[in-house]
């Protein structure tokens, strides 16, 4: 039988995890917004909610150390649109949540680490 103390510790751990996850998503969204500049305004609130949701799922499968190595500010609008689509499909039950999270992680892992300039296409 679980003791009251065990349940309290579990609840504290769960809340701590939720706070850490929320902070990580909030910071990622801020960096995405900064990187996209005026293009950020093209996304509607429902899309941003789906984006936040999928980022939270991706954070859960990436871990905090891996998350810190993602250069969110380098994300192009197309990548953000892909993430939104993943979030919408998973929330609608059209895609398994874990599959969507892993795909989001894969997409985000293609971004260069923070502080490293992305490879820009050469002009001809």
Task: Explain the overall architecture.
- The protein has 124 residues and is mainly alpha-helical.
- 68% of the residues lie in helices and 0% in strands.
- Helix 2 (45-62) packs across helix 5.
- The longest helix is centred in the N-terminal third of the chain and has 33 residues, at 4-36.
Task: Give a summary of the structure in a few sentences.
This protein is mostly helical and 124 residues long. The chain has helices at residues 4-36, 45-62, 64-68, 77-91, 97-109. The chain starts with a helix and ends in a 15-residue tail after the last helix.
Question: What kind of sheet is the major sheet?
Answer: none
Q: What is the general shape?
A: globular
Contiguous helical run count: 5
Strand content: under 5%
Low-confidence stretches: none
Give the integer mean of the pLDDT values: 90
What structural class do the secondary elements suggest? Answer: mainly alpha
Total E-strand runs: 0
Outline the secondary-structure elements:
Blueprint: H1 4-36, H2 45-62, H3 64-68, H4 77-91, H5 97-109
Descriptive terms for the model:
124 residues, mainly alpha, 5 helices
């Amino acid at each position: 039988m679980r003791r009251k103390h065990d349940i309290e510790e579990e609840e504290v751990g769960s809340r701590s995890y939720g706070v850490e996850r929320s902070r990580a998503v909030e910071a990622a969204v801020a960096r995405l917004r900064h990187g996209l500049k005026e293009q950020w305004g093209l996304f509607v609130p429902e899309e941003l909610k789906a984006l936040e949701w999928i980022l939270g799922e991706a954070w859960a499968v990436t871990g905090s150390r891996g998350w810190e190595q993602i250069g969110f500010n380098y994300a192009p609008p197309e990548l953000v649109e892909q993430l939104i689509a993943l979030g919408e499909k998973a929330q609608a039950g059209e895609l398994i949540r874990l599959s969507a999270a892993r795909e989001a992680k894969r997409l985000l892992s293609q971004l260069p680490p923070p502080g490293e300039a992305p490879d820009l296409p050469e002009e001809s």
